[in-house]
Design brief:
Layout lengths: L11 E4 L7 E4 L4 E4 L2 H15 L4 E3 L4 H10 L4 E6 L8 E5 L3 E6 L2 H16 L13 E4 L1 E5 L5 E7 L7 H13 L4 E5 L1 E2 L2 E2 L8 H6 L1 E2 L9 E2 L4 H13 L3 E5 L7 H6 L28 H17 L4 E3 L8 H5 L1 H10 L6 H15 L4 E5 L12 E4 L4 H8 L4 E3 L27 H6 L8 H4 L2 E8 L7 H8 L2 H10 L7 H17 L14
Parallel strand pairs: 3-4, 3-5, 5-7, 10-11, 10-21, 11-16, 17-18, 18-19, 19-20, 20-21
Antiparallel strand pairs: 1-9, 2-8, 6-7, 6-9, 12-13, 14-15
Helix pairs in contact: 1-3, 4-6, 8-11
Length: 520
């Protein structure tokens, strides 16, 4: 076994040969040295959780002194050493027969180093000898690595179909394995509301449920408790993944309006929708209670999620109700607005004012470019890559996730009637070859934070389906976003995918195993 099957491929790997056997024995006899307890403890925690290896930790003396002592005594060790010359997320691993030296510029670099080692271990043959089962031999090598872009994400829609906390944790593990660092959690939409807000109990009693006849009771739904969400955030943090919540407004709020009709323009009772699509009922810009609701919602989310980012949606917001609403007309006149579409900007501006009290960086789908926002959002471009140019023209940062060119993971893997999926085709090769910097000048490239894959779940009910739709397309996206263009190698990727699929299955996942590109 060697290090050449990693996904994403590291920037540089040098396989080492020593006069000794040329491998390092990783077992519970290994001691970790570090100057920082939290880094050592997290590394040991992950190793215990993933491989049942209970590594010792020694923080009593200087790492340099301990390294010399353990080397002289031929005792195996792992040294975790800060190197301020390394960039954010950058790391190096040097493996010799006597020990493993890992250097990183920050805690994220150490976590990436761990997951690089984890990938190697997952590709080793399972030992049939119980006496050897807890000893893993790592080939000696030097690895240096860092990501090409900052934002490497995956979005999971839990509104259309709800997935249990255990699966969310498992999904985050799979992201972290690939050095994907953003879990975008789409928590609210027309078909279901998944988070509680103080003063609005019906969001969990009514908005979280729909009568779609998919269960024996005919009632489908649920929500995440505050404890659930904290568990997800903590789990992700230990693995270097940032949880970015999305609360969609002022459209895609049918579930909330079903619970509180007074938030809409017509004040009419509706049910939580079952079918897909875009609904006319949106938050009423002329209703004072709407602003109270927005404030309570945004404050709750900002307090609960420590992420620097808050996604406020802002996509697919119809204006039909605003056009016919006298109260909305009055608001337009008061604020000197010229078209109903501007009311979306007004409502989002109010939400952002609250979020900025918590120093949040705001993200919104690319429709926000047309609603005259007072804030400067990170623009998540999904409709068409041409909106990338529109965003960077006004110096807005961009996350690239275009629906037509590979990043929509609810699309079919192949143009085949037997493949699940909807609205289009995104092959693994489409994802791998996506150029997030296409036709951009050097100046424009500076505004691209990175990219992400989006998995909408209108027709995806179970975790196994999520795994099938997401992987190995997210594996391809991970390498796409991690490596500079000159280092990408589709032939190598397809070859090592044979090993990588075994890794995913060893972690209990069920990835797609069909053709990686459309033939014919």
């Amino acid at each position: 076994m060697n290090w050449n099957t990693l996904i994403p491929a590291p920037l540089h790997i040098e396989q080492k040969k020593y006069q000794h056997e040329g491998t390092f024995p990783l077992s519970s006899q290994v001691t970790i040295f570090s100057e920082h307890a939290h880094i050592a403890e997290n590394f040991a925690r992950l190793m215990a959780n993933d491989f049942k290896l209970m590594l010792k930790i020694n923080l009593d003396r200087s790492a340099t002194e301990l390294e010399s002592e353990y080397t002289a005594a031929s005792l195996p060790f792992i040294l975790l050493q800060n190197n301020r010359d390394l960039q954010t997320e950058e790391y190096s691993i040097r493996i010799s027969p006597g020990g493993i030296k890992i250097q990183a510029g920050d805690r994220l670099g150490f976590i990436h180093a761990y997951h690089t080692i984890k990938q190697y271990l997952l590709a080793l043959p399972l030992s049939q000898d119980k006496a050897e089962a807890q000893v893993f031999r790592l080939q000696c090598a030097v690895i240096t690595d860092r990501p090409a872009v900052q934002w490497r994400g995956a979005m999971l829609d839990v509104s259309r179909h709800l997935f249990p906390v255990a699966f969310i944790l498992h999904f985050i593990d799979l992201l972290a394995l690939h050095h994907l660092n953003i879990f975008h959690w789409h928590l609210t939409d027309d078909q279901g509301w998944r988070i509680g807000v103080p003063g609005y109990p019906k969001l969990l009693e009514v908005a979280a449920w729909r009568d779609d006849m998919t269960t024996e009771s005919g009632r489908y739904g649920g929500y995440y408790t505050e404890q659930d969400i904290k568990k997800v955030i903590e789990h992700a943090s230990h693995r270097g993944v940032t949880v970015v919540p999305e609360i969609d407004l002022p459209g895609h709020v049918s579930a909330a309006i079903a619970a509180y009709p007074e938030l809409s323009c017509r004040k009419e009772a509706i049910e939580v929708p079952v079918r897909h699509g875009i609904y006319e009922d949106v938050l009423c810009a002329g209703t004072p209670a709407v602003y109270t609701f927005i404030e309570a919602l945004v404050r709750k989310v900002c307090r609960l999620f420590p992420s620097d980012y808050l996604h406020l949606g802002g996509d697919e917001c119809p204006t039909a109700r605003w056009k016919e609403c006298p109260a909305c007309g009055e608001v337009m006149q008061q604020h000197g607005l010229h078209k109903p579409q501007d009311l979306q900007g007004l409502l989002m501006n109010y939400a952002v004012q609250i979020a900025e009290e918590y120093d949040k960086k705001i993200i919104a789908w690319d429709e926000v470019l047309a609603v005259n926002p007072d804030f400067r959002p990170i623009t998540a471009v999904w409709r068409d890559v041409r909106y990338i140019k529109d965003a960077v023209a006004t110096n807005l940062q961009v996350v690239v996730s275009p629906s037509q060119t590979g990043t929509y993971l609810d699309n079919k893997h192949l143009d085949d009637p037997n493949e699940p999926g909807r609205l289009g085709v995104s092959t693994v090769k489409d994802v791998y070859t996506l150029d997030i910097f296409k036709d951009l000048s050097d100046r424009e490239r500076e505004f691209i934070l990175g990219g992400q894959g989006n998995l909408w779940t209108e027709e995806i009910k179970y975790g196994r389906q999520v795994e099938y739709m997401a992987f190995p397309r997210l594996s391809a996206l991970a390498e796409n976003l991690w490596l500079p263009e000159a280092k990408k190698d589709w032939s190598r990727f397809t070859e090592v995918m044979k090993v990588h699929l075994l890794r995913l299955e060893r972690l209990g996942a069920q990835p797609y195993r069909g053709a990686l590109e459309q033939i014919g």
